[in-house]
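Consider the following assembly input.
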Amino acid sequence: MSKVDFNKETGPREVFCGLTSIVWLHRRMPDAFFLVVGSRTCAHLIQSAAGVMIFAEPRFGTAILEEKDLAGLADAHEELDRVVNDLIARRPEIKTLFLVGSCPSEVIKLDLATVAEKLNKRFFGQVRFVNYSGSGIETTFTQGEDGALKALIPLMESSNEEKLLLVGTLANNVEDRFKKIFRNLGISNIESFPPRQSTELPKIGKNTKVLLTQPYLSDTVRDLKHRGCEIISAPFPLGIEGSTKWFLAAARAFNISELKVHEIISPLINRSKLALESHKEILKGKKLFLLPESQLEISLARFLHNECEMDLIEVGTPYLNKDLMKEEINLLPDNTKIVEGQHVEKQLDRVRKSNPDLVVCGMGLANPLEAEGISTKWSIEMVFSPIHGIDQAADLAGLFSKPLRRNQILTSKTLVTH
Amino acid sequence: MELTLWTYEGPPHVGAMRIASSMKDIHYVLHAPQGDTYADLLFTMIERRGQRPPVTYTTFQARDLGGDTAELVKKNIKEAVDRFRPKTLLVGESCTAELIQDQPGALAKGMGFDMPIVNLELPAYSKKENWGASETFYQLTRTLLKEKVSFSEKINPLRWKKLGRRPKINILGPSLLGFRCRDDVIEIQRILSEQGIDTNVVAPLGASPEDIERLIDAEVNICLYQEIAEASCEWLKRNFGMEYTKTIPIGIKNTIEFINEVHNKLDLPLTNKQELEHKSKLPWYSKSVDSNYLTGKRVFIFGDGTHAIAAAKIAKEELGFEVVGLGTYTREMARQVRATAKDLNLEALITNNYLEVEDAMKKAAPELVLGTQMERHSAKRLGIPCSVISTPMHVQDVPARYSPQMGWEGANVIFDDWVHPLMMGLEEHLIDMFKHDFEFVDGHQSHLGHTATNTKDFLKSDEKKEKNSKEGIIWTESGRAELTKVPFFVRGKVKTNTEKYAILRGILEISDETLYDAKAYFSKLNY
Ligand code: SF4
């Protein structure tokens, strides 16, 4: 492991809770419904994070706890039953219903597992129920996806067929690209988790080789291991370097020669390097500060330093699983300052003092920092955009060069007044 | 338990944040888990605020719950006070903290600070955002002024005369994340100052705790948004005898009535009565011959109580529209909205469920929708033009230009914003006359290109139903052909009416003639 500088910080935070991942999960699996059992705050959080979407009826909702539900627990279970019945009557197309726990439901100890079990019996053959918690007292932002995937694992049948399993939500076009490349490498049996339909869960077993596409899936990985899956250790497929090492690691697991991998991906790499040039031009030597939010921060820092030559001031992450991140950490420059957790005020003091050229942060902080003259990039964009793979490296860099380029445009005077 | 797919209002602590963020020198310590920090983005994104809301979230986690969350609260309060040095501290909790009962307000009061501390108890499981804002503003006003109650004589609204100065008023209610508050305040101040009335304090928007303490220097309070300020105005009236205004100055008639009300309360003669009608272009624009085509346009209204009621009045009395639906999500103002609806021969829709609103909209078959950002989406799906008149709103509803809703300029803005989405007068006739012109395909008949695909989808699904109507009524070739000639935005209505007529008369096949019979029958009923 390279000699990075690990730190931990506690205090007031500015991070989304795990419910937020419903925003992309419900799009990934259009036959599923995410029912949060929570408060008006939870409902408001999801709709605010999702922004304005033109939907007829969204595939997520909140069963909002009311005063009378808090009075006695028996009541709350019955009420939830009623809400689920209504929902299924109204939306017969739902195949999987996620009961999602929140802070209030956790604090009053609403037992969603038992509720799900009962509902599974009643709606057997029609709808499947799973539960997980996206609460802010246990999870941040992307950890919600970890919880949702983990909840699906018990539903996955066993099979000893050899396969490559890509784990973590990807944009559809990126997923298709990856599958094509793997097929060219000679791996024919490739599946994704989560699948595009909640009912098409991959079968897993001891010949399943898991390749993670996202770094925030600690619990899912643990449970997949328990089911006998082999976890391929690799950095994450962000940027050319990460993606190359990721392909190589997969090839190794399938006894495919390194030469073959290079043969297939070299043209992509060359093309991508060319596309990356103009962004690197802008990013080179610029100072970067990443605030914790998506858990993608370490991989992004690695890409932006190694391939775009940015200087890293501080890399925040809401949660750090050193084991899962070891390949990434090894690629970071020595003395990189990693801070797990947050004290938002102290961290913002450090931001101001270090005079960064670009700060990656949440939506609540972006405009206030911009108003102080500090350029920002929303971290939520990283989970909403296709950024994985060699082909996307330039687009990924573009997300960071754009605010800097815009700044240049707005502060320069290029047209002469005649 | 209530299934909610989308909510018009956030939880009550977001209302408290709106008050805290609107003001200066205030800090709000909120006992809440990390995810609740999403609320910051409402201010920094929708309002494009360049400052963070003055809020510290205690960010307790599951592992803290077994231990001492009260200590965590105190630590955060201390840090916040040391760092931000607020002149008044608000302390409260969000939904989750309410369940663990640390009583952060009481804790804060025991910490020996000398600044005023407002303990906010906002029941998250029964109340909503606007209530939370109102309660917070009220508690803040009470805390900062209660010591003056016993020393102060009742305020005589005529005392300005004896004091030998211009009368002073306070403008209460404008806040961040309110609809066009920033500009309404400027407009109202301008109007009153023209009448020789000075503004003492505007609150909460831009006010400091000292300003709140100065509220009683004014003679009269202007309650600009009932949702936020009525509770405070009532308290000031009860304890200091301060009168407050009830008229909301949106639209010409209400603005004039508002000016009259203020003058009456202050016993200030109104010298420029005749001029008032001409301060805004709305009356003339509405009277000008081009606006003839606005007569009887069917409009559906849904929003917060204040804006929905005002919109109904303007629509009917100032623009000559026909109001075909009226509703609000503001339960606190349900009684008033119901009364207005009754005057319009309508039943008010009081709901927090946007799907019910969309259904009502569909049934009413309006030509224009006035609503919140959600009604904009619903209307778009139905291919109906829409103008946003109320929160909740999107970033695009916070315009860069000066665009109040209140007063003279507000009326100008309203005329433009409501009329522009509609088809223009003569244009409409030409389209009606020459529907076969290939340029006039549904949804592409005017300068309003935006309704195209949605209209078609709406019709397609309607046509499917039309073939097997459950009463066994059949549309003949000629009937169907005639129906397609009806302007698309009233086609749904015409179709239902014709079928209703057919059932009434026992007609089994609807031909083009049936359509005209039905038309004659219903127009007789309406006039
Ligand atoms: S932090 Fe907890 S209470 Fe807040 S939105 Fe997330 S789950 Fe709901």
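The radius of gyration of chain A is 22 Å. Ask yourself how this observation constrains the way the partners meet.
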